Amino acid sequence: MRTRAAVLLGVAHAWHPAVQGACTRQRRSRDAVVWLGQRKHSSYDASHGNTLNASLASVVTHYRAIRAADVLIWHEGDLSRSDVDSPSEVNVRFCRLAPRTGWGRGRGQDRIRPRETRWSEGYMRMIRFYAVTGWDTLRHLGYEWWMRMDDDSFFLSNIDYNVFDAMRGGGYVYGFRALSRECDRMFGAFVDVYREDHGLPPLLDDGTIFCERVPKHCSRDGRPLRRQTRRAASRRRGARPEIRWPRRFRARPYCEGPGRVGFYNNWFVSSIEWWTSEPVSKFRRAFDASALIFSHRHNDLIFQSAAVRLLLARERWRRFADFSYQHHTVRDGRVTWGGLETGYDDPDAKRTVTDYLRRWHAHNPVSSKKCRVQLTRNDSRFYDVAYVPHGRTRWGVPAAPYCPKAGRAPLW
Ligand SMILES: *[C@@H]1O[C@H](CO)[C@@H](O)[C@H](O)[C@H]1NC(C)=O
Ligand SMILES: *[C@@H]1O[C@H](CO)[C@@H](O)[C@H](O)[C@H]1NC(C)=O
């Protein structure tokens, strides 16, 4: 029997969704293309409403095989058919976000206050859905593969094949489109402790470890951080629902930019079977129990990147770089984060870039850069793309989309 104390202390436990009646219509496919449409609650743009429709329209136009998948639009009860237009041959299912479908905080986490008030509750719930709970929810709905689109994600050139088939056919498990850099200030310590406790090999250094580059924000030898993360990472009885960091780490717990390289996961495609396998579920539960989502807004991007880097062989990674893809955040009419990356198979790649710059950066000193990217471990060729990040972060570094300095992006 679970004791009251254990519940209060937030001991990690398996999470069981109840999906009966969560979605409209019937499942027709094992492949799901997923949008999360939050009308209220967003950290970003209050007028979000119809970027969702525009995003879906871009996929319907450029990706014919969407007709072979199901489209799931997750929402909090404030979206309906009249908000999106799609051809009748696309199976669009509206699904309700609720505690029983993985929407909300983990047990014992209701009183955790985020370190910065600008992180909205809806944004942090979204993180938990993509990092922790959504995998179980989709599995219970009968899906085997998940492709994510954000409501500000756009396909800008054609994809003439079925992305899910490409994943299955090549034996791949995690597919991504672009890279970005995000802070690993405390999360890096969490991952290191988890890794040590579970006898996992060290992560390959990508050369951008936050504490090395900005040592004044970290302890000299990393020890205080390790002590704090150990309990959260190891899931022992009595693990605290929230890590109590030494005072000097509390000031600015999340720093955008100079962290490690990760998958820019506003688009990804992955196997639900892998994410719900025991080693990955265990890591998801440990991340959930740490409460780092709700105390420090540690996000699904850094979590997914860590899970894949720790637990998935490089041979199962698959970068997609053939199609042009846009994902950025607009505040007050300006792009404040993210950008564009062209695809090597976009016949109009040059025009895709000039159109984008004219539309979004007419008055900003932003230009496109070249990157040569590797797609799979097994293929030593590099493919040419161009990318336009929004500019530099407050730390003076480019962040998203990202390409290493040498202009080459191997599967690191
Ligand atoms: C959705 O987007 C399409 C394509 O741009 C447009 O024709 C349609 O009017 C939009 N529908 C809604 C409900 O916004
Ligand atoms: C290795 O790559 C080639 C293409 O470069 C592909 O045809 C082949 O199926 C790949 N093999 C594995 C095991 O992924």
From TrEMBL:
Record GO terms (molecular function): alpha-1,2-mannosyltransferase activity
Protein's name according to its UniProt entry: Nucleotide-diphospho-sugar transferase domain-containing protein
Keywords per UniProt: Signal, Transferase
GO terms, biological process: cell wall mannoprotein biosynthetic process; protein N-linked glycosylation
Signal peptide: 1-21
InterPro entries linked to this entry: Glyco_trans_15, Nucleotide-diphossugar_trans
Keyword set includes Translocase: no
Lineage: Eukaryota, Sar, Stramenopiles, Ochrophyta, Pelagophyceae
